[in-house]
Design a protein that fits this description.
With 174 residues, this protein is α+β, with helices and mostly antiparallel strands. It contains six helices and five strands, in the order ββαβββααααα. The structure holds FE2/S2 (inorganic) cluster (FES) (2 copies).
């Protein structure tokens, strides 16, 4: 038996200790927001927050999570979650949606530890999208992480830049 707290609720998993957290969440706890993508630690679709940090749940056996605090997309609350939701809508990010819970969870974890991440820190979120929403995700991430006054100045400088814009950033776009 493995005990942990998931979205504020204490849970006991009576599963093989080698069961990946992703399947414990999806199959035993009915929390299906974290998605199964590559199963190889490469895509980020399965991202959840473990003890305050983003983690790939497909690669985490529950045996090592006794007493851990887990937050999934279903449990996101607070200022970072609200800012992200608003930014996601404002930038019209959504497409098929499969990768988005993992992206939102990864960015929430970053914003909770660092409310003003740098461009390299934002681009270092390595989640993959097969639909190509990467440029819109980057714009939403900037919007969610920058104060309103600074955002207006950033948007203006982007418009008058030499064309090197978010749409050309390779990260998150494949
Ligand atoms: S399913 Fe976990 S990283 Fe791809
Ligand atoms: S929106 Fe379809 S995989 Fe990202």
């Amino acid at each position: 038996m493995t005990r942990m707290t998931v979205n504020g609720e204490p849970l006991e998993f009576r599963l093989d200790p080698q069961t990946p957290l992703l399947w414990a969440l999806r199959d035993a706890a009915n929390l299906t927001g974290a998605k199964y993508g590559c199963d190889g630690g490469a895509c980020g679709a399965c991202t959840v927050i473990v003890d305050g940090s983003a983690a790939l749940s497909c690669a985490l056996p529950i045996a090592g999570l006794e007493g851990a605090e887990i937050v999934t997309i279903e449990g996101l609350t607070g200022q970072a979650g609200t800012a992200l939701r608003e930014a996601w809508e404002a930038e019209q990010v959504s497409q098929c949606g499969y990768c988005e819970p993992g992206m939102i969870v990864a960015l929430t974890a970053l914003l909770q530890s660092n409310p003003r991440p740098t461009e390299p820190e934002l681009e270092a979120i390595g989640n993959i999208c097969r639909c190509g929403i990467g440029p819109r995700v980057l714009r939403a991430m900037r919007r969610a992480s920058v104060p309103a006054g600074v955002r207006r100045a950033s948007a203006q400088s982007e418009r008058f830049s030499n064309g090197s814009s978010a749409a050309e950033q390779p990260s998150l776009s494949d």
